[in-house]
Amino acid sequence: MTLAIVVPVSPFEEPSVLEESIKHVKKLKADKIVYVIDKNADNDERVEMARKMGVEVVARASRRGKRAGAINDAIKYLSEFRPEFVLIMDVDTRTDEKTVNACISALLANPDAYIASARRYIYNAKNLPSETVEAEYRLINFLLSKSAFKQFNGMIGVLRYDILCKGLNEDAMAEDADFATRMHAIGFKALLVEGEILEQAPLSWKDFYNQRKRWYFGGLQLWKYRKEIKRAERSFRISWYLALTVTYVPIIMLPLLPLSIPLILAYYRRISKLKVFLGLIIYTFVLQASAISAFLDYIRKREVEWNAIKRA
After folding, report:
1. Alpha carbons 158 and 166: distance in angstroms, whole number
2. Where in the chain is the domain with CATH 3.90.550.10?
3. Torsions phi, psi of 171, nearest 5?
4. How far is CA 218 from CA 174, 223, 243, 244, 305, in A?
5. pLDDT tens by residue, 123-138
6. Distance of alpha carbon 158 from alpha carbon 132, whole angstroms
7. How are beta strands 157-160 and 113-122 bridged, if at all?
8. Percentage of the chain with pLDDT > 70?
9. What is the C-alpha separation between 217 and 199, in angstroms, rounded?
10. If DSSP codes are grouped into helix, strand and coil, which group holds residue 7?
11. Run of H or E residues at 77
C-alpha cells in the first residue's frame, strides 16, 4: 500500500503559509509528498524554499486549469510511482494520521468508493465571519452524514489513484463538485469516516462572498450532467437536485434562524457567542447575494474570478 500527498498552491499564498503547511504535512506518514506551486514570478522564492524543506515540487509557470490543472499535473507527475492512494490537501488543511488511516481503511473495505474523508472543522474562528462559518460547518457535517451526494470541499480526503487518473475538468469552476458528480453518476461512492479535517474560514464578508460566488457558479455548471444523473441511484438524484436548487435560495431559511439561538447557547455555553446569531443573519443575505450574482454571470457567460483569501 502506497500513499502520496498532493497539495496545490496558488500564486497568492504567502511563503509563511506554505512553510507552516509543509511542516504539518511532513508529520503525516506518506511515501511521497508533492506540492504543485503556481509561480507568482520567474524566481518565485516559494519553490526553492519548499524543495529545501524536503518535499517534491511541481512548479507551474501558468495557472492552466487553476486548481484542477494543478491536481492533473500532480497525477501526471505520479504516473511512474503510481501510488495506490492520494491524499489531497490545501495549504490551510490540517489533519492527523489517525484520520488518514481511517480513510484508507474505509477505501480498502469498499471497492466501490472513490474517496473517503472526514467531517470538517474551522480552526481560525477569530471574528464574526469566521465564527459564523464555523457554525455553518456544524450543519454541513450533519448534511454530509445524511446526503447520498457526499461532495467534500476541495476533494480534500484520500482518493484511489487509479480513479483520480480519470482527471479533473479544468473548465469547471468547482472542480471538486464536478468530479464528485461524474464519479457518483457512474456508480462510485464517497465515504464519510470518523476523524477531523481542519481548515480556515474566510476572515471577511468580502472574501466569503467571493468564495461562495465561485462555488455557486460551479454548481450551475453541473446541470450539464443531468442526463448522466438520470442513470444514478434515486437517493443520489434527490440529493443532487436539492443541492443545486434549494441552496440557491438561502433567504427562505431566514424565518428559521431564531431556532439557532438555543443551539448556539447549548454548544458554546457562553452568552457572548450569541453574536453568531447576528452573523447568521448577515451570512444569509451575503450568501443570497452571491447566489444571485453567480446566476447573472452564468447566464451572461462571464467567468468568475479566483481571488486570494486572507489567511490567519
Report:
1. 15
2. 1-91
3. -95, -5
4. 4, 10, 12, 10, 12
5. 999 999 999 999 999 9
6. 28
7. antiparallel
8. 100
9. 22
10. strand
11. helix 66-77
Q: H-type helices in 53-204, by residue range?
A: 66-77, 97-109, 128-146, 161-164, 175-185
Domain 1-91: what homologous superfamily?
Answer: Spore Coat Polysaccharide Biosynthesis Protein SpsA; Chain A (3.90.550.10)
Instruction: Give buried/exposed letters for 247-270 (b at 16+ CB in 10 A, else e).
Output: ebebeebeeeeeebeeebeeeeee
Q: Which amino acid is at 228?
A: E
Name beta bridge partners: 7.
Answer: 35
DSSP class of residue 148 equals S
- pLDDT given for residue 310 in this prediction: 85
DSSP characters over 102-129:
HHHHHHHH-TTEEEEEEEEEES---SHH
Between the two ends of the chain, the Cα-to-Cα distance in Å is: 35
pLDDT tens track for 150-179: 999 999 999 999 999 999 999 999 999 999
**Residues 209, 290 contacting (CB under 8 angstroms):** yes
Query: Checking phi first, is residue 270 left (phi over 0); if not, alpha (psi -120 to 50) or beta?
Result: beta
- Mean pLDDT check: name the lowest of 144-153, 198-207, 278-287, 302-311: 302-311
Q: How far is CA 235 from CA 149, 226, 278, in A?
A: 8, 15, 35
**pTM reported for the whole predicted model:** 0.94
Q: Please say whether the beta carbons of 302 and 272 come within 8 A.
A: no
Reported as a single tens digit per residue, the pLDDT across 209-244 is 999 999 999 999 999 999 999 888 899 999 999 999
